[in-house]
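Postdoc handover notes: sequence design on the structure in folder B. Input tokens:
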């Protein structure tokens, strides 16, 4: 009991220091970067409004969501706070500017986060199709993976191809050098990451997991996550020479042996520092590596930061 109490006291001290470190960095460096004042008047159509003929796929700063389909996961007020990472539906996220979705499934095609379950993936597909039917030039990166500890849904690749059909952008590395206008009317790069089934192959309608990479840092300490994100991003090639998408997640994660294990209060430790992160990418000379930035509980200001960072290049 005494050692556990001592451990928790030390962690509280570490957390206090890490919160202070981010505040100090914000106060000394600020969060200005090219395009930081940008505000989209129409987040539902931000790609179309920036001119699809100028938007090169590999150069876009893609705003994404982490554990995207968790708005109704678990039981309200009981288990939901331990796994809910988004409060908006998939459709609402897309309307508000999200363009990268992170979907986790289990064997029966229900969306899950660990052991907690929510609706069928059919709901996700329906929301995506609704959004695409209401827009003309918006491209989505849809990552679907079998959640850790679960089995692949049988025949899931065929299901995705059947449901998404002509919206799918088939696997072709040449896509990275194309503009949005050049891939239209196809609208979805779907990355399927099974655990046991065969990976998609070159030329397939779906893309294999190696085309969407990240370095997940499992911590609830905000400065540790912030600096680790910068470190791993610095190790990536510039987008100009990269043939895969690289994602940075502006999130921290509840750790089971800590008193606070609900997502919202923990992720709130880093949530407000997305603009600081982009500014630090410029300050440290690695802005040419930034491509996907994801968050829990996405807001339009987060989308503005990502889009603004890119919009100044095509204005």
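Designed sequence:
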């Amino acid at each position: 009991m005494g050692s556990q109490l001592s451990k928790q006291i030390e962690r509280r001290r570490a957390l206090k220091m890490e919160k202070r470190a981010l505040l100090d960095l914000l106060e000394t460096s600020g969060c200005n970067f090219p395009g930081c004042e940008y505000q989209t008047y129409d987040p539902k159509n931000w790609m179309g409004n920036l001119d699809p003929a100028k938007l090169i796929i590999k150069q876009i700063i893609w705003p994404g969501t982490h554990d995207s389909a968790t708005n109704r996961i678990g039981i309200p007020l009981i288990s939901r706070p331990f796994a809910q990472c988004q409060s908006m539906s998939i459709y609402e996220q897309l309307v508000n500017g999200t363009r990268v979705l992170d979907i986790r499934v289990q064997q029966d095609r229900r969306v899950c986060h660990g052991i907690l379950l929510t609706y069928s993936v059919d709901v996700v597909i329906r929301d995506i199709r609704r959004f695409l039917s209401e827009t003309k030039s918006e491209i989505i990166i849809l990552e679907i993976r079998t959640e850790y500890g679960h089995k692949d849904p049988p025949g899931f690749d065929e299901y995705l191809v059947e449901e998404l059909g002509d919206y799918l952008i088939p696997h072709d590395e040449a896509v990275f050098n194309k503009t949005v206008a050049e891939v239209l009317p196809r609208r979805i790069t779907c990355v399927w990451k099974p655990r046991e089934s065969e990976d998609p192959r070159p030329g397939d309608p779906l893309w294999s997991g190696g085309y969407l990479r990240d370095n997940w840092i499992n911590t609830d300490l905000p400065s540790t996550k912030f600096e680790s994100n910068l470190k791993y991003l610095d190790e990536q090639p510039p987008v100009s020479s990269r043939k895969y998408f690289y994602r940075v997640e502006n999130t921290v994660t509840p750790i089971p042996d800590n008193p606070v294990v609900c997502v919202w209060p923990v992720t709130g430790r880093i949530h407000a520092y997305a603009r600081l992160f982009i500014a630090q990418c410029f300050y440290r000379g690695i802005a040419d590596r930034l491509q996907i930035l994801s968050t829990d509980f996405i807001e339009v200001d987060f989308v503005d930061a990502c889009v603004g960072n890119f919009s100044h290049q095509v204005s």
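Context for whoever picks this up: Strands lie at 62-65, 100-105, 110-113, 116-120, 140-146, 188-193, 212-214, 245-249, 292-295. Don't rerun without checking with the PI first.
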